[in-house]
Amino acid sequence: MRMTHHIINQNGENITDDWGHLPLLSVDDLSSLNNDASKAFIITSDDDLDAILPHFKGVAHIAIDFAHFADGRGFSWARILRDEGFTGHLRAMGHIMPDQFRHAMAVGFDDIALPADLTERYGAEAWRDVAAFKLPDYQSRLQAKV
Predict the structure, then answer these.
(1) How many domains does the chain have?
(2) Cα(8)–Cα(111) distance, rounded to whole angstroms?
(3) Rounded distance, CA 43 to CA 96, Å?
(4) What three-state secondary structure class fits 113?
(5) CB neighbours of 36 closer than 8 A, spacing ≥ 6?
(6) Staple partner for 60: which of 16, 37, 56, 139, CB 3.0–4.6 Å?
(7) Contact between 60 and 88 (Cβ < 8 Å)
(8) What is the pTM of this model?
(9) By C-alpha distance, which of 24, 86, 19 is closest to 49?
C-alpha cells in the first residue's frame, strides 16, 4: 500500500518523490531483493533487522517506517544499516517531528517522507528552520575565550 507523502530533504525543503514509481516491498519479499536497484524496501518496527541485514547488498532504496512518534528504533536501525555498509538511499517514513529532524540526518537518513496530515500540522517553515539551525559546539566557545 502506498500513501501520499511529502518528502523533506536534508535542507528542510519539500521535494518531489523520486521513488514514487518503485514497488515498496516488505520483509516477505526478501528473496526478490538481492542486487535489485529497481525496488524499494520498507522496514517496520515489527521486523527483525538482524535477519534482514544480509539481504541488502545491492539494494538502492530502503525506507524505515516510524509508526509512532515515541518509537525510536528506526534511528538505531538507520545507524546500523550505515555502519554495515549500506550506501543507498535511506528514507525515514511516517511519524517524525521537526525536533527529530537533525538526529534523523545525523544517523544517516537522506530524507523524510511525511504523511500529509503531519506536513499540514507543522508547516514547511518548521522543517526549513530545524534544517538551518546549527548548535554551537563547546570547542568554538573555548577557542573564543583564548
Answers:
(1) 1
(2) 6
(3) 15
(4) strand
(5) 58, 59
(6) 37
(7) yes
(8) 0.82
(9) 86
Query: What one-letter code names the amino acid at 126?
Result: A
Cell numbers for 121, please give them. 500540522
* Alpha-carbon torsion angle 69, 101, 9, 82, nearest 10: -90
Instruction: Tell the residue number behind the cell numbers 518523490, with chain if given.
Output: 17
pLDDT digits (tens, 9 = 90+) for 10-39: 888 888 887 777 878 887 776 665 556 677
Q: Which stretches within 33-100 are classed as H helix? A: 49-52, 73-83
Question: Cα(111)–Cα(104) distance, rounded to whole angstroms?
Answer: 8
39-62: pLDDT as tens digits: 788 898 888 888 888 878 778 899
Between CA 96 and CA 121 the distance in angstroms is 12
CA distance 78 to 11: 19
CA distance 140 to 137: 6
Which of 91, 92, 90, 97 is closest to 117 using CA atoms? 97
CATH number for the domain that contains residue 60: 3.40.50
* Structural domain boundaries, residue 116: 5-145
Contact 115, 83 (CB under 8 A): no
Q: For 116, which DSSP code?
A: H
pLDDT at residue 71, rounded to an integer: 87
